[in-house]
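> example.struct
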């Protein structure tokens, strides 16, 4: 009788639980019994592992195999258990040295011919806390992504490479950083003219504020979303790694720059906030540390729009299903665009609106007061002058660079002062950060009462005003800064 024990991990939200794969060989008719699992993907691993072991030149044990996964209560899902199962069988049958299981963890899916395949969902396992001396054996394509989390990573191409683990480790240990690019991958067309639109985009980008734009078709709302994306600074290594973990869980390609998610208005509630039976992250979590752009906002279903209320305020989302519950981060910047009415021309000085009063009422009802109360800025967008549209784009790119430098300086001052951008400031710290004078505070109180601002609206105005002051390098928020911030706020209360 022989017994082997191999360590691996099973993803549980953003974390990964340590799992021990134990294999026991005993006398009896050849058979494989797997205990401690419920997922069919893991149960099917025995067929893949058997073929992979034989194809790799190893001997399949002519014994009764009992494979246990402990703790039994932990959730076990995915195909990353193939490699640890194979290693535990080879250790128990004395085809690999016992030392291979000491201070190591194994992840990876196996093909029938013994190749170690690229496996999704491993970044959460790699980012888990462990002893620095632990060595992780992983598929070769996953090794580079895991290297920033672990100092000892071995990339495997084929199961047969484990015959010579010493030589393998000498050639395949890696310490590298995640792949990244500077700036954004695509240069978007920029709004022509539109001084008020550029100003709103500058403030939104500098403070990370939520922005809602309303205007007739062709006014430049979608271009503004691209403008804000280009104004944002490159993500830090920490922010990038957090985004990569979320994308890995969702089985999507890793972002090489700050996330920009733009789902179609037909997206389901599960697709936006997350769900499925495995409680995977949705678009709001994939936009973590980036932008969630919702074009044609009123065209989204009412339930989908209203689901944004809690994440906008809390910065995270709790996804609960029958067997699991995961907390995913969702600190995204919401940039939304809408037409003023179904036909798109309400309030236009050039084209008459064709919508009935009932259609306008239904359209306006799609955006509830509680949702609008969570948006920092609202701006109406007019069409650009044709003379501005015909101007050379080089002038717009020069303007973009000047505004981007202003945004970078403002965001850096926020990090130095409070350690985070203004949009993330807790309500209890907003007033202290603004450093209002007594006269300015009295003016704000009277103006807020006259405008009937809620407490949330007042705090959001203060955050925007703090950003406006940062763009000018001012240490305190002035009445002029508050007036501009209130102008963006008052528009939300008006009929879009």
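> example.seq
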């Amino acid at each position: 009788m022989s017994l082997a024990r191999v360590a691996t991990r099973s993803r549980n939200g953003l974390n990964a639980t340590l799992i021990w794969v134990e294999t026991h060989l005993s006398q009896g008719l050849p058979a494989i019994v797997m205990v401690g699992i419920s997922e069919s993907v893991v149960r099917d691993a025995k067929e893949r592992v058997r073929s992979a072991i034989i194809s790799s030149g190893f001997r399949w044990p002519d014994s009764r195999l009992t494979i246990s996964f402990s703790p039994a209560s932990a959730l076990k899902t995915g195909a990353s258990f193939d490699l640890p199962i194979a290693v535990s069988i080879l250790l128990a049958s004395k085809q690999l040295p016992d030392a291979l299981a000491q201070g190591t963890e194994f992840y990876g899916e196996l093909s029938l011919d013994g190749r170690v395949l690229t496996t999704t969902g491993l970044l959460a396992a790699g980012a888990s806390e462990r002893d620095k001396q632990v060595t992780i054996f992983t598929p070769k394509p996953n090794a580079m992504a895991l290297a920033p989390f672990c100092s000892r990573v071995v990339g495997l191409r084929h199961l047969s490479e484990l015959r010579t683990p010493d030589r393998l480790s000498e050639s395949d240990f890696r310490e590298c950083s995640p792949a990244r690019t500077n700036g954004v991958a695509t240069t978007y067309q920029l709004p022509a003219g539109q001084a008020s639109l550029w100003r709103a985009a500058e403030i939104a980008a500098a403070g990370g504020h939520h922005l809602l734009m309303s205007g007739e078709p062709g006014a430049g709302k979608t271009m503004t979303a691209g403008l804000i994306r280009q104004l944002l600074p490159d993500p830090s290594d920490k922010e990038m790694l957090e985004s990569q973990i979320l994308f890995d869980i969702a089985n999507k390609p890793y972002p090489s720059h700050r996330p920009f998610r733009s789902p179609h208005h037909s997206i389901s509630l599960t697709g936006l906030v997350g769900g499925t039976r495995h409680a995977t992250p949705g678009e709001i979590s994939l936009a973590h540390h980036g932008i969630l752009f919702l074009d044609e906002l009123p065209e989204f279903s009412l339930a989908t729009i209203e689901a944004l209320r809690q994440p906008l305020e809390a910065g995270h989302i709790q996804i609960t299903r029958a067997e699991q519950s995961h907390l995913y981060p969702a600190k995204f910047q919401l940039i939304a665009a809408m037409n003023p009415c179904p036909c798109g021309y309400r309030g236009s000085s050039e084209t008459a609106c064709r919508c009935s009063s009932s259609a306008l009422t239904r359209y306006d009802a799609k955006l509830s007061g509680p949702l609008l109360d969570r948006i920092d800025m609202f701006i109406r967008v007019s069409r650009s002058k044709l003379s501005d549209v015909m101007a050379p784009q080089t002038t717009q790119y020069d303007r973009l660079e000047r505004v981007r430098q202003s945004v970078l300086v403002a965001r850096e001052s926020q990090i130095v002062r409070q350690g985070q951008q203004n949009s993330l400031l807790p309500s209890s710290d907003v007033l202290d950060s603004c450093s209002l004078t007594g006269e300015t505070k009295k003016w704000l109180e009277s103006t807020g009462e006259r405008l009937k601002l809620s407490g949330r609206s007042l705090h959001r105005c203060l955050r925007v005003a703090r950003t406006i002051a940062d763009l000018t390098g001012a240490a305190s928020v002035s009445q002029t800064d508050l007036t501009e911030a209130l102008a963006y706020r008052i528009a939300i209360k008006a009929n879009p």
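> remarks
The longest strand covers residues 15-26.
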